[in-house]
Amino acid sequence: MSDKIACTHCHLEFSKDVMIKDGDHYFCCNGCQGVFHLLSDEGLDSFYDKLGDNKLAPPSEQFEDASNFDSPAFYERFVSINKEGFSEVSLIIEGIHCAACVWLNEKALTNMDGVVATNINYTNNKAKIVWDDDTVKLSKIIEMIRAIGYDAYPYDASLQEVKANKERKEYYLRIAVAVFATMNMMTIMVAQYAGYFTGITPAVKHILNVGEWVLSTPVLFYSGWPFIRGTYYGIKTKTVNMDTLVATGAFLTYIYSIYITVTRSGEAYFDSVTMIITFVLVGKFLEVLSKKSVADTLDIMNRHLPEDIKVVENEKIVTKNVNDVKVGEVVLVATGEKVAIDGELVEGNGNFDESSLTGESEPIYKSVGDTIVSGTVSIDADVKYTTTKDFAHSTMSNIVSLLENAMNNKPHIQQLANRLSEYFSTIILALAFFTFVGWFLYSSSFEQSFMIAISVIVIACPCALALATPVATLVGLSIASKRGILFKEAVQLETMANADTLVLDKTGTITQGKPAVVKAEIVKDFDKSLLNSLLLNSKHPIAKGVMNYIYSDDLKCFELDSLSNIPSQGMTAMYDGKMLAGGNAKLMRTIGIDVESSSESSEFYFAYAGELLAKYELFDMPREDALESIQKIKKLGIEVIMLTGDHERSAKKVAELVSIKKFKYDLTPEGKAAYIEELHKNGKKVVMAGDGINDILALANSDIAIAMGNGSDIAIEVSDVVLLNDTFSSLYDSFKISKKTFRMIKENLALSFVYNGITIPLAMMGYIIPLIAAISMSISSLLVVGNSMRIKFGYKD
Amino acid sequence: MSSWVIAMMLGVSVFLGSIAVVALMWAIKKGQFDDEEKFLNAVKFDTEEDLNDAANLERKKEKLKKKEYRPE
Fold first, then answer.
1. CB contact under 8 A, B36 and A123
2. What are the Cα distances from residue A794, in Å, to A497, A740, A797?
3. Residues A670, A676, A678, A681: is their CA dihedral positive or negative?
4. Which pLDDT score, from 0 to 100, does residue B18 have?
5. Are A485 and A476 in contact (CB under 8 A)?
6. B45 domain-assigned
7. Per-residue CA distances from A594 to A135, A381, A521, A609, A612 (Å)
8. Are A8 and A27 in contact (CB under 8 A)?
9. pLDDT attached to residue A359
10. Which DSSP helix (H) or strand (E) runs through A399?
11. A503-513 tens-digit pLDDT
12. Is this model's pTM higher than 0.80 or not?
């Protein structure tokens, strides 16, 4: 073999003799060559300078007809008209690898007549394109994207996404103001504190107070607006919450400080106003930041089903939108195509991949009369089937709507700090009121009573209470992310810490998801190359498992004749005039070799010239660290349950291997979800870990959903926690970190209560000396921050 | 006298700082930070040509807008 050379367009390397030579350039395929020439003609070849060493995927050459994009139905669903009368569409562009790709797409589209704006997001490859529909049609735009080697499909830029973005932006603005004011406030406070201890003239102090007043005003009324709004709604619905406490605390402190400033008596606490709002705002922002968008998930999910299918009508094949297909129509499914509607096979037979429903990678053989379920893929046959349901009632559509339902109704567990703050705020407000009444009766001076009552609220300033949760979760999240555990929302740490049940999917989560040889029995020595040549022709997971097992560098590839795949048995071929056969016991019996099959794992036999040569036993083994981690998780007092779509025997074996006592088998995706619902009814808080499409319903129904890092994109999307490094020990780590974080939150809350328990009685008695107030306020916050840092102990990296 | 200096310095610094904050808020509102990747990467390809493209796009838009018939 000659040396490898990179394709001029996609930069993938192939050996020189398979490349297409074109002048000085080499291409791996016609697609790359086509794109290269198009770019040179359009004067866009500076793309290659920008691309640098990045590699691209070679362009696909097969596309559906782009004219579908011009149908009125499509326009109605995805295209909107903006204020200026231009058409607008949101697309997801596939095949973008780097910034140069974005540049190329934007450039190519911008150069088109009629396109007035393109904006492609570098992070999620979503594009917004604005064009004049009289000059150019959407199909031409899509064709252009395809011509330069990418593909695009539309998505519904639904209100939810827009709303989430707007909310996030609003928080950025509020935080910008709050942080700016707080930073300036700190410099002024340095002067204030220095002056307090070493002496300061009243005039200078007054100037500083006025400066603080100016800085704290926008923080309270602009940055603090969410809290004020929250309080308003709280009063309306007669509930007291964290917002009430923060807003009333900050507002009264502000009023009190203005009074102090104007009358030039005592100490002002404008700094507390800005600090508390800034910190709590940042904490709240963390919650908003990563809120999952249900819309995004459903976009990906819908993408898993074809939109158009081929229907046989009056002996002609017509393409129809899935929604227009009625019950009883005959649908054509070609090799590699996905089934969109449930039905019954009427012509042809072959293997179907049902992994999206069962999670099992082993294909299932179907013949005439068998039911076909939407979401499955035909692996090796062109078949015809009659529909027994319409699209909206088919299995996969059902799953999509159940998923939507589950995600919108996710149980929301109120955070401990929020729950406590309800009582805390009520008590403080009541205490302040009684203090006022008591002092008024005692001294009958309205001004004095009022100031003391306010000082109770000011001193009870919920700094520490409000900080307790955000600081601890922030530390917890950062440790988790360093260990490859991604919590999508901060509150999930607390929810997870309270969970008492862990539900695991079998295939792909506990196990590695592909069978491996566990036992090899060589009956008679043979040339491994022979077996390898036969296996090369199969995509079956068992064949792949055996191939991995016998792999070595010196394997040769023989030329085989009359190769045939026998569904759900194995395959045969001729070599040197004699028959090669590889498959299960059934195949062996058909070719006249008597074998006994008794094992609970899958078996693969290999025979040549009517003689059995070898027997391999394969099993989908649990991950290496599964047993140890599951035992550790059990020690935390969590019940571990396994759910699987697989049959009883292999479920039992895996459960035994990883010491799980309770397991359920033969479950459909809905069955798994129903089981989790049942656990909920029994008062359990459930963490579910899974990886496949068949798990998503269960994941969406659980309190905390964990996805393995190599799981399907839809599972990752639905989940709250992603284990990036895909190991079982990080599952245990995530439990440990969340428990530790939650303990810190509780400690922090306890600390702030102790602090308040000491200072509030002093304030009620009117003994609040400014020095104590100033020091204890800073100390309580410092204690909380310092305590939270302790989560890091035990995690060196 | 000395307090007047303090007041002036405080006022000026807060004023200058707030100009920067207002500029930042304007940029956030315009969506300049919406796409963190673009924020970091697009700078690499920012050339005169891109500026011309942007200007041409504006012109094209104006021209299309002037057409009498507008699709609804």
1. yes
2. 18, 11, 9
3. negative
4. 93
5. no
6. yes
7. 73, 30, 16, 14, 9
8. yes
9. 66
10. helix A395-408
11. 988 887 888 87
12. no
Task: Give strand pairing partners of A618.
Answer: A517, A602
Contacts of B37 in chain A (CB under 8 A): 99, 121-123
Protein fold of A516-619: Calcium-transporting ATPase, cytoplasmic domain N (3.40.1110)
Cα A471 to Cα A765: distance, rounded to the nearest angstrom = 32
Domain that holds residue B8: 2-66
- ipTM > 0.85 (yes/no): no
CATH assignment of A487-512+624-724, among 3.10.129.10, 3.40.50.1000, 3.30.70.240, 3.40.50.300: 3.40.50.1000
Number of C-beta neighbours around residue A75 at 10 A:
17
pLDDT tier, A1 (very low <50, low <70, confident <90, very high otherwise) = very low
B interface mutation test: which of A48, A93, A102, A105 has the most B CBs within 10 A?
A: A102
- Chain position carrying tokens 């509020």: A174
What value does the mean pLDDT take over residues A343-366? 77
Lowest mean pLDDT of A13-17, A175-179, A500-504, A758-762, name the range. A13-17
- In tens, the pLDDT along A298-321 reads 666 666 677 778 888 877 777 777
Q: What is the pLDDT of residue A173?
A: 92
Helices (H) and strands (E) in chain B, counts: 3, 0
The two three-digit tokens of residue A761, written as one number = 């009685």
Q: Is residue B71 part of a domain?
A: no
Question: Is the Cβ pair A99, B34 closer than 8 Å?
Answer: no
Maximum C-alpha span of chain A: 116
Q: Where are the alpha helices (DSSP H) in A237-319?
A: 242-263, 270-289, 294-303
Task: Mutate one of B49, B64, B68, B72 to test the A interface: name it (highest A CB count within 10 A).
Answer: B64
Q: What is the mean pLDDT of residues A606-625?
A: 84
Q: Where are the domains of chain A?
A: 4-51, 66-157, 163-291, 419-484+739-797, 487-512+624-724, 516-619
Q: What sign results for the dihedral spanned by CA atoms B4, B5, B10, B11?
A: positive
Q: Give the pLDDT confidence score for residue A184 in this predicted structure.
A: 92
Contacts of residue A630, defined as CB under 8 A and 6 or more positions apart, other chains included, come to A640, A658, A659, A660, A728
Spatial CB neighbours of A532, under 8 Å, sequence gap ≥ 6: A547, A550, A551, A555, A556, A557
On whether any CB of chain A is under 8 Å from the CB of B15, the answer is: no
Q: How far from chain centre, in Å, is Cα B59?
A: 20
d(CA A60, CA B33) in angstroms, rounded, equals 33
Q: Which of A243, A271, A353, A505 is catalytic?
A: A505
Question: pLDDT tens, B13-67?
Answer: 999 999 999 999 999 888 777 776 676 776 777 778 777 877 888 887 787 777 6
- Please tell me the distance from the alpha carbon of residue A435 to that of residue A432, in angstroms, as a whole number: 5
Query: What is d(CA A725, CA A715) in angstroms, rounded to the nearest whole number?
Result: 16
Contacts with A43 (C-beta within 8 Å, 6 or more apart), sequence order: none
Query: Is A505 among the catalytic positions?
Result: yes
**Residue B25 touches chain A, beta carbons under 8 Å:** yes
Chain B residues 27-56 within an 8 A CB cutoff of chain A: 28-29, 31, 33-38, 41-42, 44-45, 53, 56
3-state DSSP helix/strand/coil % of chain A, to nearest 5: 50, 20, 30
Q: Rounded mean pLDDT of A358-374?
A: 77
Residue A368, token pair as written in the block = 């005439």
What band does A61 get if pLDDT is binned at 50, 70 and 90?
low
Helix (H) or strand (E) segment spanning residue A120: strand A115-120
- Per this entry, what is the length of chain A? 797
Measured N-to-C along each axis, helices A138-147 and A99-110 cross at an angle, to the nearest 10 degrees, of: 140
Per-residue confidence (pLDDT) for residue A797, from 0 to 100 = 47
